[in-house]
Specification:
about 700 residues, mainly beta, nine-stranded antiparallel β-sheet, 7 helices, IPT_dom, MetalloPept_cat_dom_sf, Ig_E-set, IPT/TIG domain-containing protein
Length: about 700
């Protein structure tokens, strides 16, 4: 879906859920019309289910908003004060109710939850509410707990249905289910005005616009690309006129308008406008015909469709104090983990579910090896117990009650921003968290989803695309296409939309430091993939014939073609020494051996490079083998300030080291932590002059002296 959010210093935040997946489902019983509007990774809740689950059902309008941190300073929530017009269910007769929604903005910190209700000021409709502490409420089903009114058309919509009449469809349906009529608390003047006779405009002079042509016919959204529209009767100035594009978030069932600052120019015969991913009423511009509405207002529709090949997510910001009009900005990815990008950590139940874990990692590799986004994982780390703003990018199965009803999964994106020199606005992604429902109808792969299953890898790939800062498209062959259906498998990025979009984001995210925040470092093309399934390599030196035997086993080998055995003498620079063809399959593994007949005499390091049928490589852990000439020593010697300690131990230990000159004067003391399985340690010696030094060392088991000649 789109990413659109407005930050206001004095006004309430206008927020919108993003990182969503719109589920294209069959017609649901009791729905006369199904619209895929903002259905962000959710399954339909019938109107009957919503009525039955709600303690209070009201018609109302959002009159004020205030965002706040929770007590632990982990998540931002928003308090929405709603003026009540009518009560459809419940004994209470409140003038105002307080509805708490997840996400919001505090200063320049912003949390956005996908598949989750996010309201805006002056929005009105029907709220299906459940009680919370301190006389507050939450919307049952979150996004599905609100039927939004579309005034002045007199229509309404929820994520899965369009209502042609508020009074005749919405009111009557709820009355039928509750068995009673509503109670009026306050007059809804905007709704009542729709029933009044309309002004007769038949004799007014009106101009009907016509679109003659437009260019380009293929364009990008959210990057500043300008669409030029040529025609007649647009009006000499824009006035209340506007351009509107198909909304990619609902597959084009509705239209979205650009921000006022997106209009470059407007004359009677030509309009220049930027194609947005953050429309004035939310949404992302998608492929399809577009419309021009002039000030009269009259409408012209393009004769041919506009194609939007990719859409980059934007943040919108407005600051009345600084005189900054509402405008869109592209957020950057950063070097959050100090290793070039972001590290994902897993919840205990997610990491224990190996098929889910492997599907997630395959999806990561699909992005990283096509756009080189720097994502890695921390396996077997401390489990992520909850989702919080804690600089941990968590991936977990949500526990009961954490996700809104019927939500398959969601992403939480956390942003921070800064303003340089009063006008230069910047935003970056500080953290991203993913939550998924623990369902029985997931197909984790590597087999394809079928029947009523949802393909987990396809869902993850799409969600990670939002984490990559890409928005929805109306392009069925693209991963960022707005919809995914049961049994639909979409595990490969589109080379004409998804990949170019990701590369654009990377080009902006790796090119400069902003606000002292380090930019992302792109992954190298020859080492882009993380290891999906652990590859346990064992290596053993055989002194009888001076060989090293390497052995490994696999659980499954989906698409694996071969294993390349690589060797190094320093643990850094590896060289291939042999290849073993893969003999397993997608559902079964195999056992392998390889013999190195010419191992290095001191130390050798071995690893496996697993190659798949797409030419991508994954690496095993490195195994160290000591040769027959291995001794405890410093090398190189003579050397400079840096050398290496060669030392073998069977237990974790400490080596206490003291550096003396030949006169017996001590220059420094330091400790080296030694571990089993590691026999080579880099040492940085004190910054002293050239000459001979004695380095005394001792452990819990032995001791000795090195004579070291420093020549640099």
């Amino acid at each position: 879906m789109k990413q659109r959010f407005t930050l206001l210093r004095l006004l309430p935040a206008r927020l919108r859920a993003f990182f969503c997946i719109t589920l294209t489902l069959g017609v649901i019983a009791s729905y006369t019309a199904v619209a895929q509007h903002s259905t962000c990774s959710i399954l339909p809740l019938s109107l009957e289910e919503r009525v039955q689950a709600s303690q209070l059902i009201v018609e109302g309008k959002v009159i004020s908003q205030q965002s706040f941190w929770d007590e632990r300073h982990e998540n931002i929530y928003t308090s929405n004060k709603v003026e009540v017009y009518k009560v459809f269910k419940g004994n209470a007769t409140p003038e105002v109710v307080e509805i708490i929604t997840e996400g919001g903005r505090v200063d320049l910190d912003l949390h956005i939850y996908s598949a989750t209700l996010s309201l805006k000021s002056q929005q009105q409709g029907i709220f299906f509410l459940q009680p919370m502490p301190n006389r507050t409420y939450k919307a049952f089903g979150s996004l599905q707990g609100f039927i939004e009114y579309q005034l002045p058309q007199g229509t309404a919509r929820d994520p899965f249905r369009q209502y042609s009449s508020i009074q005749q469809e919405v009111y009557s349906s709820i009355r039928r289910l509750t068995g009673s009529t509503y109670r009026t608390i306050n007059h809804n003047l905007a709704l009542e005005a729709l029933a009044k006779p309309k002004e007769n405009t038949q004799n007014l002079r009106r101009q009907f616009p016509l679109i003659a042509s437009f260019s380009p016919s293929t364009i990008r959204a959210g990057v500043g690309d300008v669409l030029t529209i040529v025609g007649t009767n647009f009006g000499n100035t824009r006035g209340k006129g506007y351009v509107e594009f198909k909304n990619a978030d609902d597959g084009g069932d509705s239209y979205i308008q650009p921000l006022p600052t997106d209009y470059v120019s407007w004359t009677n015969t030509e309009i220049k406008v930027k194609v947005p991913t953050s429309g004035i009423d939310h949404g992302t511009a998608g492929s399809g015909v577009f419309r021009v509405v002039n000030n009269d207002p009259n409408t012209a529709t393009s004769a041919t469709p506009l194609t939007i090949i990719y859409a980059v997510s934007n943040v919108t910001y407005k600051d009345d104090d600084r005189g900054l009009a509402e405008q869109s900005y592209i957020p950057r990815l950063i070097n959050q983990n100090g290793q070039g990008g972001y590290t994902f950590r897993f919840g205990a139940s997610f990491e224990a579910n190996k098929p889910a874990l492997y599907a997630f990692k395959r999806s990561m590799n699909e992005w990283s090896c096509n756009t080189f986004i720097n994502w890695v994982t921390a396996d077997n780390a401390t489990a992520v117990a909850r989702t919080a703003d804690d600089k941990i990018n968590g991936v977990r199965f949500a526990t009961s009650g954490e996700l809104p009803a019927n939500v398959l999964g969601r992403c939480i994106s956390r942003y921070s921003g800064c303003i340089v020199d009063g006008t230069n606005v910047n935003f970056w992604v500080t953290e991203m968290d993913l939550e998924f429902a623990a369902r029985t109808d997931w197909q984790y792969g590597p087999g394809s989803a079928s029947g009523q299953q949802f393909d987990f890898e396809s869902v993850v790939l799409h969600e990670l695309g939002h984490g990559h800062q890409l928005s929805h498209l109306i392009l069925p062959r693209a991963v960022m296409h707005y919809g995914v259906a049961r049994a639909q498998v979409s595990r490969d990025l589109s080379p004409t939309s998804d990949i170019p979009g990701g590369l654009f984001v990377m080009s902006r995210s790796t090119n400069q430091t902003i606000c002292r925040i380090a930019p992302m470092v792109a992954k190298p093309e020859d080492n882009c993939a993380i290891t999906v399934q652990p590859l346990a390599l064992e290596a053993e030196y055989h002194p009888a014939d001076n060989t090293v035997l390497l052995e490994w086993e696999t659980q499954s080998e989906d698409g694996v073609t071969e294993y390349v055995v690589e060797r190094s003498q320093n643990g850094v620079n590896f060289t291939p020494i042999g290849t073993v063809p893969a003999t397993g399959s997608a559902t079964s593994g195999s056992s392998y051996q390889f013999v190195d007949t010419n191992p290095p005499p001191v130390l050798a390091y071995y690893r496996l490079r697993k190659v798949n049928n797409r030419g991508r490589s994954e690496y095993s852990e490195v195994e160290e083998v000591r040769g027959p000439e291995f001794v405890t020593q410093l090398a190189p010697n003579p050397g400079g300030n840096t050398t290496f300690l060669y030392y073998s131990t069977t237990v974790s230990d400490r080596l206490y080291m003291d550096v003396y000159d030949p006169t017996g004067r001590i220059h420094s003391s330091f400790v080296v932590l030694v571990e089993p399985g590691t026999s080579r340690y880099e040492l940085t010696l004190p910054n002293v002059g050239r000459g001979l030094y004695l380095i005394r060392w001792r452990s819990s088991r032995d001791s000795g002296v090195f004579r070291y000649l420093k020549v640099e």
